[in-house]
Amino acid sequence: MSESHTPPSGSARLNTGVAHNARVWNYWIGGKDNYEVDQQVGEHVAGMFPIIRDIARADRDFLGRAVSFLAGERGVRQFLDIGTGLPTADNTHEIAQRIAPDSRIVYVDNDPIVLVHARTLLTGTQDGVTAYIDADVHDPDAILERAAGTLDFTEPVAVMMLGILNFVLDTAKAREIAHRVMAAVPSGSHLVLTHPTFDDALGGAGQIPAMKFWNENATPPITARSGADIAAFFEGLDLLEPGLVSCGQWRAEPGASVLVPQYGAVAVKP
Q: Which of 14, 64, 80, 144 has its CA 20 to 30 A from that of 258?
């Protein structure tokens, strides 16, 4: 079953003359949903910071491991995926519903090209629900209000915020958003989060000039943060093993782990 809350105005907002994060990210992971301007900016950033493609792949692989872990080992049946990005193989609903066909997933994004591709996302199992809402991470109350039409907020929800709070440039605001969303879900809910860092321990120094170039030549603007600032998003929650680590190392198979300057973690609300 699938539900659409996609407005017809999505394609009208589409600007193919400026590189956009969703399309450039799609380019870095080998997708086809991008334009020449996205490829040009993507190549320039990759020239400045070659590990960016590894970050993109590691972030995507983290999503797969985290959803599999939550649906399989933790028994989670509801997912609120904020900042969905463009659909590729093994999206959140596909992984969750493969394990538990009755899983309910709500995707949230306000990127016009993602709206154009929403129909690709909106194909789930007969037993479960896959829905899409057009909303902005800066307005968590609107996200929660609309997601409540599909999700039962009296039962645990996995809140997915992969590579999205880095587009909220004010750290206090980003922290407030994470806390607001988690305040609305019950005990047993989880926060799944990835975020780029400039921490030297993860090799993040190269992010700074690459992000400066990005902010001057693409949209939306982005910021990296320290591990300490990212850890604050999880205040009031219990981090699950192995804690806040490079997302490429979070529960990775032996020999498959990769160190990238992108933190990842999963925490549970007590």
A: 80
Q: How confident is the model at residue 267 (pLDDT cuts 50, 70, 90)?
A: very high
- Show the CA angle centred on residue 220, arms to residues 214 and 223, nearest 5°: 65
Strand partners for 197: 225
Q: In the predicted model, what is the mean pLDDT of residues 134-144?
A: 96
Q: How far apart are CA 12 and CA 124, in angstroms?
A: 27
- Quote the tokens at residue 23: 């399309």
Q: What is the pLDDT of residue 219?
A: 81
- Whether the per-residue pLDDT at 83 is higher than 70: the answer is yes
Instruction: Output the average pLDDT for the chain.
Output: 90
Give residue 4's pLDDT: 41
Q: Is 8 exposed, middle or buried (0-12, 13-18, 19+ CB in 10 A)?
A: exposed
The owner of tokens 């969750």 is: 96
Position 131 pLDDT exceeds 60: yes
What is the CA angle 251-253-257, rounded to 5? 80
